[in-house]
Write a structure and sequence with these properties.
The protein is α/β, with parallel strands linked by helices and about 300 residues long. It has a single domain, classed as Rossmann fold (3-Layer(aba) Sandwich). Helices cover about 35% and strands about 20% of the residues. It contains eight helices and 13 strands. The strands form four sheets. Strands 1-6-5-4-7-8-9 form a seven-stranded mixed sheet, sandwiched between helices. It has a two-stranded antiparallel sheet with strand order 2-3. Strands 10-11 form a two-stranded antiparallel ribbon. α2 packs parallel to α4, α3 packs across α4 and α4 crosses α6. The protein starts with a strand and ends with a strand.
């Protein structure tokens, strides 16, 4: 069957900088570091998903780790990803022959490697292309590992066109089987995970003149927007509020021109009435509320933004 081959993680924005959001000391207070203590991960599973994820990865979102997972050794050529994982790699160009069963066998054998990928992850987004071999067969194992280790999990699955016949039927069965991935289902019940369906047929009906290449770009924009606006930006804001509150508690304000700003005149460093509220990380479900649904979700494109439509 061969062994799973994984590239070494390469450096990017999530491991390179330390500032007010990821590790600066202010008045003796050190905040959590984004990309270290709080990890954001995007995992693309299957050939089609890897192509969509490649577009997201090309934006180089700060703090975001990107992983490509496939059963085709050519996944190693996608160096825009931080990590590339070839399941069952044995030197052949097409290892599954399009069989979800073979891909599932490779993914099962690679479970320890998948567990390592998501160990310590906080926010995970998974995208999988269904109907073929790798995405269909490996997705349950990827979701299980991600659900075990992450705090919050969003899964996007891509359904083939109706004209693709058996591939679309295979995708429907694969989606139904995800209800048996216990760690993922348990997370859904706690409103910490959700499943979204990106349907090629729905896109085609809504955009009959769109070029095929626009499909991947549209899905990539949907996923990029979700990661940035529902994970990265709210968490950065929450940690900054916590940092400022901690600075006030210790009698120091934020950095200003390299120095520390003392409390405002008349404000006691320990005066509770003057302390801003510091949202704890446990408040994160508040900005996950819009994504806590088992409903199949399709999308339409509006000017300058990809917006979900239930």
């Amino acid at each position: 069957m061969g062994a799973t081959y994984e590239t070494e993680a390469k450096g990017n924005g999530w491991g390179r900088t330390r500032d007010a959001y990821d590790g600066t000391e202010v008045g003796g207070v050190e905040t959590l570091r984004l990309g270290h203590d709080v990890r954001f991960v995007l995992a693309a599973v299957g050939g089609g998903a890897v192509r969509v994820g490649r577009i997201v990865a090309s934006h180089h979102l700060r703090h975001l780790e990107t992983i490509a997972i496939n059963c085709d050794e050519r996944v190693q050529s996608h160096d825009v990803y931080d990590r590339r994982v070839c399941l069952g790699w044995d030197g052949s160009a097409e290892d599954t022959g399009g069989s979800p069963l073979v891909a599932a066998q490779h993914a099962r054998a690679a479970e320890p490697a998948l567990e390592r990928l998501f160990d310590g992850a906080t926010f995970v987004t998974v995208i999988a292309s269904l109907g073929g071999g790798a995405g269909t067969g490996a997705l349950p194992f990827v979701l299980e590992a991600a659900a075990r280790h992450s705090e919050f999990l969003t899964a996007f699955v891509v359904k083939p066109f109706t004209a693709e016949g058996d591939r679309r039927s295979t995708a429907d069965r694969a989606i139904a089987r995800l209800h048996f991935v216990d760690p993922f289902v348990e997370k859904q019940q706690r409103r910490a995970a959700t499943l979204k369906v990106l349907d090629n047929e729905t896109f085609a009906r809504g955009h009959p003149r769109a070029a095929f290449g626009e499909l991947n770009a549209t899905y990539a924009e949907i996923i990029r927007t979700q990661i940035e606006q529902d994970y990265l930006l709210p968490v950065e804001a929450a940690l900054e509020a916590r940092r400022l509150a901690q600075a006030v508690d210790t009698g120091f304000g934020p950095r200003n021109g390299g120095g520390l700003v003392p409390p405002l005149p008349g404000m006691s460093p320990l005066a509770g009435a003057h302390r801003p509220s510091a949202p704890p990380l446990a408040a994160a479900p508040a900005f996950m509320a819009d994504f806590a649904s088992d409903a199949e979700v399709t999308f339409e494109v509006v000017p300058d933004r990809a917006r979900p439509s239930l």
